[in-house]
Amino acid sequence: MAGSRIAAMGHYQPSRVVTNDEIAQLVDTNDAWIRDRVGIATRRIAGDETVADMATAAAGKALANSGLTAADIDLVVVATCTSVDRSPNVACRVAAKLGINAPAAYDLNTACSGFAYALGTVDHAIRAGAARNALVIGAEKLSDVTDWTDRSTCIIFGDGAGAAVVTATADDEPTGIGPVVWGSAPEKGDAVRIEGWRPYIAQEGQSVFRWATTALAPLALQACERAGVDPSELAAFVPHQANTRIIDGIAKRLNIPDVIIAKDIVESGNTSAASIPLALSKLVERREVPSGAPVLLFGFGGGLTYAGQVVRCP
Ligand SMILES: CC(C)(COP(=O)(O)OP(=O)(O)OC[C@H]1O[C@@H](n2cnc3c(N)ncnc32)[C@H](O)[C@@H]1OP(=O)(O)O)[C@@H](O)C(=O)NCCC(=O)NCCS
User: Is 113 a pocket residue for ligand 1 (Cβ < 6 Å)?
Assistant: First the structure.
C-alpha cells in the first residue's frame, strides 16, 4: 500500500457562544486580559451534547464531504480526553450512530495532541493493509471538566469536534500524510492534569508555556524534514490551538512569514484534541488552502505529549 491521504474534513460546534465578558461574571478576569494573554475572544460551550454526539456530527459531515458512505468505512478512531463513559468507547458509539458495520473502533487519549497521534496510527494501519477507509475524529467536552471558579483555566477551554476521512492512496499516487514525529515529556506530566473520578482540569500554565515555546519548534521542523517539505513551501500551519502567543512563538521559529497560520482559537478557545481538525476543517470549508497543498499539523498537550505531520490538504 503506497500510503494514505485525507479525503475530506467536517466539524461540529455547539451553538452556544460564550464571551469573555460572560466569564468575567464568574471569576475575576476581563476581556482585555484574556485577549492579550491567550488570544481568545469567544468559545463554544455544549449543552446536552455528549462527546459522542459531537464526534458523530463532525464525522457525518466529513463522510458526506468525502463522497464515501458508511459501508466504505472499516476503521473509526476517536481522539478524546473528556469522554465520561469508560465503555462502550466513543468510536463504537459513532459507528453505531452512523450505521458503520463492523469497523475496527478505538479511542485514543493523548489529550491535545490526540488528533495528530490518531492520524499517525491510522496512516500506519492503512499502510499495513489493516484498513482502507477510516474516520479520524477529535472530539472534546472540556466544559465537563472545567472548574468555573478557577480563572487560570476556565478562560481557556471550549467544546467541539472535527473529523477527517482518511483513505488509501493508489500505488502510483504520492502519499498525502507524511511521517509522524511523535513523543512525550512524561517527566513534565503534571503540568496539565485531569485526574480522578470527578476531575477538574488543572495546569502549571507557565511551565506548559515555556515547554511549548522552546521544545516544539525543532520537532515541527523534523516533521517537515521527514516529509521532504521545506517550511517555506507550506500552504498552512495548523498547530494545536492552545494560546495565540504559543502559536506565534512556534511559527516565528519556523520562519514562515508567508504561510497561513490557523488561529481558530480566537473564536473557539482551546478544544484539546478537537482543535486541529476543527481549524483545518474550517480552512478547507473556506477554501483558504488549495487542494493538495502541504499543511503542517502539530499537536501538543497533556502527558506532556506531542505529534505532528505534514499532510496534503483535501
Ligand atoms: C495560563 C496562561 C494564560 C497564564 O498566563 P501568564 O502570562 O503565564 O499569567 P501568570 O500565571 O503569570 O499570571 C500573571 C498575572 O495575571 C493574573 N491572572 C491569572 N489568570 C488571570 C485571568 N484569567 N484574568 C486576569 N488575571 C489573571 C495572575 O494572578 C497574575 O497576577 P499577579 O502578577 O498579580 O500575581 C499562560 O501561562 C498559558 O497560556 N500557558 C499555557 C497553558 C496552555 O496552553 N495549556 C493548555 C495546554 S494544551
Answer: no
